[in-house]
Write a structure and sequence with these properties.
alpha/beta, Isopropylmalate Dehydrogenase, 2 domains, two-stranded antiparallel ribbon
């Protein structure tokens, strides 16, 4: 490296519950790997959370997005707490960040890690695919409303919104991802039942797919697709889906890997006009918060994805190898994986592996 250092400013949003317990280990691992690669990280902590909502009436301040707009990336712990409805916490923090920062790709790697048994006996370490989920439009739109509340003829209308630009860009991202992997892609659809948006999605998939002759792809109805993910998860390479289908698929796939608690996610703005956000998939786990036994693996894996995004895949791979080898070569596990290790003990083993690389 010739003594050159690259420095990054990272916004830390611990959020609620175990969020505050998994981010410090993550920063420690980032700092350790960074030292090996000439990378330094400056962390700015923000107390945006359900706790803040309960005391101040908002998940984050009115100018919150401006405060983190110029950071290089955002690391998020977990959001959600009893007493604050989930739609309040989601629409008060995560969705504004995703939408204002154009984080239109939600990327979920699915791996069966050695030493973390999958609930499916057939799912072996050959399971290695990614779910590419459209993250800012589709079924999760704000368009719609309620009419005649409280009367017998009460109704609710929710409009799904698929734009050509939004659909094209997520499909291009997915096909490019497949090019860099094993060249296989499945597009999730439901055009036999959903007669406008899904045929539109399929049409654009064909147009975009034609531009990637080196990728073998097919479309598959979501109901049949989820069954195949359960029956034969090792056959998949890249799966691309709309906001709703991608959301469901990525949680199903995480459970197939035996690791909804260790799974990471990236909310990406591929053009880098805005910071991207990296988060473990697990929730805030109020039942174990404050006990020092939260599994930091999902957050640490998210940091590995952050390094990939920032252009340091070797450093990202070192983080992945460091925690994967703790699972593969030791019996040390946090309680969610059937062990009795504390957050601190598990983190120290990961740090030892980084030091010994």
């Amino acid at each position: 490296m010739g003594g050159m250092t690259t420095s990054y400013r990272i916004a830390l949003i611990s959020g609620d519950g175990i969020g505050a317990e998994v981010l410090p280990p993550t920063c420690a691992v980032l700092d350790a790997v960074g030292r090996r690669h000439g990378l330094t990280f400056t962390y700015d902590a923000f107390d945006w959370s359900c706790q803040r909502y309960l005391t101040e009436g908002a998940m984050m301040p009115a100018d919150g997005l401006d405060r983190i707009r110029n950071h290089d990336a955002v690391l998020l712990g977990a959001v959600g707490w009893p007493g604050v409805p989930d739609h309040v916490s989601l629409w008060g923090l995560l969705i504004p960040i995703r939408r204002q920062f154009r984080q239109y790709v939600n990327l979920r790697p699915i791996r069966v890690l050695e030493g973390v048994p999958s609930p499916l006996t057939k799912a072996t370490s050959e399971v290695d695919f990614v779910v590419v989920r459209e993250n800012v439009e589709g079924e999760y739109s704000e368009i719609g409303g309620r009419l005649n509340r409280g009367f017998a003829e009460e109704m609710a209308v929710q409009e799904a919104v698929f734009t050509r630009a939004g659909t094209e860009r997520i499909l291009h991202y997915a096909f490019e991802t497949a090019q860099q992997r094993r060249g296989q892609l499945v597009s999730a659809t439901k055009s036999n039942g959903i007669v406008h948006t899904m045929p539109f999605w399929d049409q654009i998939a064909k147009e975009v797919g034609a531009q990637y002759p080196d990728v073998t792809w097919r479309q598959e109805h979501i109901d049949a697709l989820v069954a195949k993910v359960v029956l034969d998860p090792a056959r998949f390479d890249v799966i691309v889906g709309s906001n709703l289908f991608g959301d469901i698929l990525s949680d199903l796939a995480g459970a197939v890997a035996g690791s909804i608690g260790v799974a990471p996610a990236a909310n990406l703005n591929p053009e880098r006009d805005f910071p991207s956000m990296f988060e473990p998939v697990h929730g805030s786990a109020p039942d174990i918060a404050g006990q020092g036994i939260a599994n930091p693996l999902g957050a640490i894996w998210s940091a590995s994805m952050m390094l990939d995004h920032l252009g340091h895949p070797e450093a990202g791979a070192e983080i992945f190898d460091a925690f994967a080898s703790v699972l593969a070569t030791t019996n040390h596990r946090t309680p969610d994986l059937g062990g009795d290790a504390t957050t601190k003990e598990f983190t120290e083993l990961v740090l030892d592996n980084v030091a010994n690389l």
